[in-house]
Every structure is written in structure tokens, then in C-alpha cells.
């Protein structure tokens, strides 16, 4: 399955015009960044990077695509020939997946000819804007849950393929599992889920339904107890499954009082080890409001997959430098319209730390290099402010070769581990849920 | 490409448990409906129906899927055997794609055995919740644009596959075109787009860029005029392309004053036929604010593809009836938890009209039929309230056979035409942009 047509038409018409003007093969640097954090958040979480690398690998114009472009007069013959041979041969550097970001963090830098780099714009932004919005929201929920596990179960509330990506992004940001089977298959994420209200309604009684589920899934299963009367359902559940019942789920259980009553009832029935899981349209605020209640785990749907009010991260993909014809020098470029001033030049990021605590986001403009930010994973080095600096920009693709560390289920696992380490560096104020300013200042050096 | 794993795990564990309890093959009716309209909207627009039918056709568990389910212990051997033979053999009735809907409108009714119908829940809801949210937002933008054409160009602000679906939904709701090439290929939607700021920045001057574009795309092209100075750019644009220049695009042009100045300058240069297209983060409110300005067309991105503040329609998929064992009678069922009372029984919808103007949404519970709402397209018939009634529920799938009228590019075209006719029936108050109540009352009869 090619990703080549998941692309705005103007990327191709620009290639056509640039082929004619002789500028199509100018070496260029494009940068992905956001001018602000979505929704007054204190920090953002980069997600989608591994999927971007897959999309670049699959970006090929086959016969079907070329025929359609030709039949519909999208571009001329010379452009079709260019596209037929398209392979990305450039380099991509950027923040590791799972890393945190702030306004103007240089998240991704694509270096290549104008034509080969510009044509990736749409699909790169689609993936990063979506996945990062989900991960950024998910990280707030993880913080609000205060160590209790969260499952992503919002597949039904977003596009069917976006659902798979959302499960992946939430997992990177610290969720423990997903309801989505394809996310399990494709990305190695643990899947969960037992039964819906329809299962109870199908049977002639709640007891019959519970017996059927326990016989099939064992006493360790999670029984949904709010189809009719919660109190009666819990009594039935413990009678049917015994006190070793795994868990009960409250799909209308966002009330701390209800959760406390359920806990007391379970304990009185001897089911002291039975966990309580709560679902029903939770978001970071309702999760935080359940902080004192005896909830053992949360299931989150709509809010996480739609970015909890900020469904797109707002990243842009801008040309920041190209090589002139006369010299081999990189020339920084930027548009100059009011409101949207951009900073030219290829960039890389560093995080300034003091005693392991993040203090600032440093953005370094590197005009004297070869257009490619060069930095690698590594331990923080001594910084100039008495603290240490942790390099944030790593090589993702070199001369068309994708670094396999960042893709597939292994890339997801790596991103999740890295994310947890990056979040651990944040100051406490990062976890305030109200709208506010970024918790770290971005300093352009 | 199968859709079978775009599914929540619990759909499969419910099948396993129901196979054991002997209830898996009970005839059931599931209904898709929304308890309210998203975001205080006055009406909703059904979209995604054709894609749901495709997803049902592609819902097959192949060797890869079965192996993964088996290796991961998701379900037992008997369930794997059931899934290996899975074909949907039931019936689906529902609102036509493009139709309007209101709270509790019975949008889709799936009739089949419990197992074959429940397993479709996740993918059916993913598609309808996403596509309908986009179409519902898009219809408000179309109304705000007051007859001027709108192009959808938000691919970069939503998941890469969601982008294709969003383009389709916006087109059904009255948008004229999309930037997304795959939406053009897959659904026959007109595509548009010429150049971005990077194209101007690539060249050594704006004039060089404009010349390249006009040479390649002709004088009828749209030149982007706000990379540097708008006034100077327009002067250059008309000098390069001549007064027959097709259009200028303002990507920071949500100011009526700016648009008026641009119009005056174009006219003074003799480019009286050159159109003005405006983009920059528009939504229904900023479009409405440009009503008096000489804008010729709009390009809308983030707001339309993310449902303008309501990214998911909030539909649910509920078991509303099943057959008992003792009798052939359909038994309406509904859960009884507080807050979420549902109405049991299979249903169909009708719209009450008077002099061609919509007055109310009628929901009819049909318990005495064969569990399947039967109605067809047709001219409105005499109603009981002095008006006429237009049947809203049509057959989409009969005994596993998909009605081809509703799928593919032809289905999209049909939905767009039907949508325009349905919107024309609405009273004027439907087009108020502020939050409010549904413009038609839903009457359950």
C-alpha cells in the first residue's frame, strides 16, 4: 500500500513548476515545528515519528497512481517521469518519538532536493499532527491517574485507521493497553476488553450473562455491572464468579461516591481483591476528580483519541534553508507575512537540565554545518549555564536509509520508555491541568 | 485489506462467551443513534454510510488475522472457527448518506445474529462518528459561505486516512473540491491546489516563482501572494500573468479590509476577473464574518476535518431487540442505568413536512414487523398532521447483499445531491451558528 497519494495536489504542481524553472533539485531543508502548544498545555509529546518513517519508505508512485494522475491531468509528462522514479534519498533528523516538545522545537528536519522533500509535506504533517495531539492529551491523563493504569478504548470515536494510530500514541504516552486489536497486531500493544451492555441484554437475565462470561473467560474476568441495578449486579457477580472475581466495570461510574459504595459492597462480600475499573467519557479532569476514590484502573475513549479538545497539534512544514546556485552555502529563508514570522536555517534542539530537572528548551541554528543537524543519543554533557544539556535531535534517516531502531513495535516500545524518562525530568508545575504557559521556555541560540 | 481487526477486543470475547452460552445465534437488532447533536448544532448530517457498507464487505478474518488471534490467546478454537467462516448475512437499513438527522434518529439498524451483528460495532461506529462529525461541521460552513465555493484542504491536520474520509464527508455536505489526491482517486472528488509559500521561498525572487508557476500551470492559475508583501506581490502577479490571472490566494486573509484592498488593487490593474481565494484557519464563524467582503472562494483546513470543535458525533450502537427462544416474537430490550435510558425495539424515521418545509423528525417503533424497518425512497406521502411525510429509512443491505447504489463514487455523488435537497427543506433558523437546540423536534411515535 503506497502512501504517495495521501498528498495535497499542490505538492505535485509545485514539483512540475520547479522542474520547469530548474529549481526542483536545489538542496533544501524543511522543518516541522509548532508555533504554540495546543490547548494551553504545559508540554507536548512527540508521537508518530515511527509511522512517518514507514510512510517515507512506502512513498512510491506505482502504475495505478501514475495512471490516475495522468488521466486527471494533475501534472505533465516530465513530472510523471520524475514521480515514477521517486525514492527519498535525503536525510531526516528529529526529536525521538516520545520526547517532549515546546513552542518552536525543531521536531523534524528533512534535508533533500526541493522536489523530494516538499512532496512528503502532507503525509508527514498528517501523521505528526494527529499522533502528537493524542499523545499530548494522553500524557495529561496518565499524570492525572497518579500511577493507576489507563486503557485506551476510543476506537469507535475516531476514524477507523486513526483509531489504530491513536492507540499507539496513547501507549507511547504511558497508557497500559488498548481495546483495538489491529493496534495489538501492528504495534505489539497489549489489548484488553471483555463485554458490553449488549451481552447482558442478549441473555434472559444478568445472571445468565455473567455465568456465560465467567465460564468462557474465567473468574479473573471483568464484569460490567451497570446494565440494570449496580448493587444487585455486584451481588450477582460475586455469587457467580466467587470472591476471586477479577474486576467490575462501571460505565457510568464517574462519581466518587458510587465507586466508594461499590468498594464497600465488594469488601463486604469478601471480594477484597476484586478491582474496580471506571469508563464513561473520562478525560484528564474527571480522572483527576477521582483521585481520592478507590478506582483501580481507567478506560478512556473519546477524550484521548480526539486530543481532549485539541485534535490537531498545529505543526507546519516549512522551508527554512536552501543552497544557492552560485555558492555551496546554505541560505536561510523564511516568509515575512505578519503574524507568521518563521526563523530560517536548519536547527537542532537541546534540553537544559540542572540536577536532572529540565530548565529550558534550547534551539540552535546551525548555518555553518552541512544543512543537517548532527547529534546523537547520549548522556547529557556539560552546558553553558551551570547545568547539563541533553541533545534532543537524532538521525532518523541518512541518505535514504531509515534507522530501524525507530520503526515497528520495537520503535514503539523504545518511544514509551524514552517518554517516561523525559517526563521524569519535568518540574511539578508541568502537571497542572488548567490552561497556561509552556512549563519550559524556548531559547533560540 | 480486511477491516476485521479494526475492532475492539470485547466484540470477539463476547462472541466466544455467547457461543458457549448458546445465545450467539439469537436474531438481534442493533441500532446506531445519537442522544444529542454535537456542539449545540441545529442539525446533523449523516456521512460514512457508503464506507460502512465497504467495511462490511471487507470484514473477513483471513489466515493472518486468525493466526494473530490464536497466538495471542484472544479467543478460543471454537470462536476462531466461527470467525474463519464469517460473512455478514443479515440486513442493514438506515438513513441515506447525506440525510439530516436529529437526536434519537435511528440512523442505522443492523439485523442479524448476535455474533454477526455485534462484531461490526467498532468499525461501524468509527466510520459514522468520524465522517458525520466532519459533514455536520462542513454543512455549517457551506451555509456561512452563502453560495461561494469551499475547498477542503485539511489533510495535514488529521490522520492520513481520516483525511481521505474527511474530504469525502465535506464534499457530501456541499464543499466543491479537496486538496487530497487520494480522495480524488478513491471517491471521484474534484481536486485543487497550486503552490505553497515554500515554492516562492525556493526561488531567488517572488517574480521568478510566479513566472515558473504561470509557465507551468497557465495564467488561469492561483498565485499565493502573501509570502512577503501582499501589495507588491499582486503587482508582480498581474505583471507576470497578465490581467487574465485566474486567482490570488491570501493565506492570512481573514480580514475583510485586506480583501477589499486586494480587490481594489486587482481592479485598478485591470484584473477585474481575477478571483480572490482566502484560506488561513477558517471556520464557520470567520467565513460568516467575511460575508460582506469580496471573497470568491474559501479554503478550509483544520476546522472542517476536526469537526470544528466536535470531532466525534457521539453515536452509539445498541442492542434494541432480540428474538426469544420460546416464541418467534421480537423482544425490545434496553439498559436501565441512570442517565442513559434507551428505547427498545427496531425503528425507522420519517420527516414531517408542510409545504416542503421540515417540521419534525418522527421515529416509529415497529415491534410488529419482522424486526427490519422496511421503507424505501419515494415521494412524501400524506401524513397525519396535515403535512406530508418523507420516509428516511432505506434498505442498504438485504440478506448480506449490499445495494450498490450507496457505495463507491456514485454513492458519494448521490449522497451530495440528496444532502442538498434535504437541507433545502430546513427552516431558516437551522442556519444559526450559535449553540442552540435542534431545529426540529424528535417525536417518538
From TrEMBL, chains A, B:
Pathway: Cofactor biosynthesis; NAD(+) biosynthesis; nicotinate D-ribonucleotide from nicotinate: step 1/1. It catalyses: 5-phospho-alpha-D-ribose 1-diphosphate + nicotinate + ATP + H2O = nicotinate beta-D-ribonucleotide + ADP + phosphate + diphosphate. Pfam families: NAPRTase_N, QRPTase_C. InterPro entries: Aldolase_TIM, NAPRTase_N, Nic_PRibTrfase-Fam, Nic_PRibTrfase_pncB, Nicotinate_pribotase-like_C, Quinolinate_PRibosylTrfase_C. GO terms for molecular function: nicotinate phosphoribosyltransferase activity; nicotinate-nucleotide diphosphorylase (carboxylating) activity. GO terms for cellular component: cytosol. Residues 369-389 are annotated as: Disordered. Transiently phosphorylated on a His residue during the reaction cycle. Phosphorylation strongly increases the affinity for substrates and increases the rate of nicotinate D-ribonucleotide production. Dephosphorylation regenerates the low-affinity form of the enzyme, leading to product release. Keywords: Glycosyltransferase, Ligase, Phosphoprotein, Pyridine nucleotide biosynthesis, Transferase. GO terms for biological process: NAD+ biosynthetic process via the salvage pathway. It comes from the Bacteria. Residues 134-304 form the Quinolinate phosphoribosyl transferase C-terminal domain. Residues 5-129 form the Nicotinate phosphoribosyltransferase N-terminal domain. Its EC number is 6.3.4.21. Belongs to the NAPRTase family. Catalyzes the first step in the biosynthesis of NAD from nicotinic acid, the ATP-dependent synthesis of beta-nicotinate D-ribonucleotide from nicotinate and 5-phospho-D-ribose 1-phosphate. This is Nicotinate phosphoribosyltransferase. It comes from Microcella alkalica.
